Structure formats: structure tokens, C-alpha cells
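Exercise: predict the structure of this protein bound to coenzyme A.
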Amino acid sequence: MAGWVTEEKDQVTGFLVARRIASDLEILNFAVRPDERQKGVGTLLIREAVAWGKTFAAHKAFLEVRSSNLAALLFYERQGFEVTGHRPRYYAAPIEDALVLAVTLA
Ligand SMILES: CC(C)(COP(=O)(O)OP(=O)(O)OC[C@H]1O[C@@H](n2cnc3c(N)ncnc32)[C@H](O)[C@@H]1OP(=O)(O)O)[C@@H](O)C(=O)NCCC(=O)NCCS
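Solution:
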């Protein structure tokens, strides 16, 4: 398990938590403070996570995301992720499908 936090003037602006699963990297939790979005903070965090994955020669990075989360889908597409799976009714409150996204690292 690994985590990264970004700060601006002693205030947290974003965080990312990831774990190693065998030879893959899973992004578990990742968010940027609303007023700090679309300034490159998310890109910085995901690059750090991918760099960590490369230290154990991760084959791919993957994650689940709500199918309605357009900002995240566009973000991950920009980072080279592609939809590789679909988990119906994966999320609760509200019930929603998850999309599985992945990018090949090695
Ligand atoms: C997804 C998230 C972490 C992205 O963080 P961010 O700091 O805004 O991302 P960046 O500024 O590095 O964005 C990089 C690129 O992603 C795309 N992107 C990011 N947010 C976008 C949005 N709201 N609409 C369209 N494109 C977007 C753009 O291509 C952007 O590049 P640009 O700013 O040059 O156009 C952020 O939107 C967030 O915290 N969302 C809520 C929590 C969440 O959904 N987490 C992920 C769950 S799996």
C-alpha cells in the first residue's frame, strides 16, 4: 500500500492511495480538492503512483470508477487508460455501475 498527498500553503489539495496486487498496481482512492481541480494536481499524483508501480515492474495500473464520473473518465483517458471491464450495480448510494479502467505500464 502506498499513498501520496499534495499540499499548498500547509493545506491538503489532493491525495492518492494505491496498492500492489501481484504484478499490478491498483488505484484505490484518489481525489483533488474541488477548488484545485484542472490545475494538474491529479496528473502529478497519478504520475507518482505509476512511477511507484514501475519500481516493482507493474504490468498495468487499474481502477474502478462510477460510470457517470465524466471528469474522472476524461482524466484517465488523458493518462492513457482504457475501459477494460464493466461491473453492473457495483456502487451503492446511489446504485451505479462501475467501469474498470486500465493502462499497460510494461
Ligand atoms: C479526477 C480528478 C482526480 C482529476 O484531478 P485534476 O487535478 O482535476 O486533474 P488534472 O488537472 O491533472 O487534469 C488533467 C486532464 O484531465 C482532464 N480533465 C480533468 N478534469 C476534467 C473535467 N472536469 N472535465 C474535462 N476534462 C477533465 C483534462 O484533459 C485535463 O487536462 P487539461 O486541464 O489540460 O484540460 C478530480 O476531478 C477529482 O478529484 N474528482 C473527484 C474524485 C474522483 O472522481 N476521483 C477518481 C475516482 S476513481
